[in-house]
Amino acid sequence: MRWDETKKQRIRRQLVRKVAPFMKDIIILRKGENIFGEYEEDQYVCTVKGYYHKGGTYITNFINDGANLNRNYEDRLLFILDDEVKKIKEHDYFKLDDVIYEIIDKGNIEDIVWDTYLKRKE
Questions:
Q1: How confident is the model at residue 102 (pLDDT cuts 50, 70, 90)?
Q2: What residues contact 44, with CB distance under 8 A and at least 6 apart?
Q3: Quick check: 93 and 118 in contact, CB under 8 A?
Q4: Superkingdom of the source (predicted)?
Q5: For 43-57, how does the pLDDT look when each residue is reduced to its tens digit (9 = 90+)?
Q6: What are the beta bridge partners of residue 94?
Q7: Rounded to an integer, what distance in angstroms lies between the CA atom of residue 12 and that of residue 84?
């Protein structure tokens, strides 16, 4: 089902009203070549607001008429989509509460929000 832009804007406004107070400023960084062709870490990409949460994944194993249900939690960061968020690419990273996270999947939901999957960097 494709949503029209009016409906997307209405949902976006509601999300901003409800979720924005819980969102934190996140500075997104990237590794790569600078404008001089030199490799550089910690290149500034943008500053956005994001909501950190743990998403759940359910895994079911069927063995001899029995089932095991495991619940694994994943680090996630929710962004309300805007022009700044669109600058983010997979493998960009950021620091939150003294932990560095890498964005491994944008998790685009109908071009309204990105519920990104994260990987903790050691």
A1: very high
A2: 27, 28, 29
A3: no
A4: Bacteria
A5: 999 999 999 988 765
A6: 101
A7: 15
CATH no., domain 5-121: 2.40.10
pLDDT at residue 96, as a whole number: 92
Locate the domains of the chain by residue range. 5-121
For the whole model, what pTM was predicted?
Answer: 0.79
Phi, psi torsion values for 3, nearest 5 degrees: -95, 145
Q: Both tokens of residue 81?
A: 């989509």
**Which residue in this structure is represented by tokens 């870490």?**
41
CA-to-CA separations, 97 to 25, 94, 101, in angstroms, rounded: 12, 10, 10
**C-alpha to C-alpha distance for 115 and 51, rounded to whole angstroms:** 9
Integer Cα distance of 87 and 81 in angstroms? 10
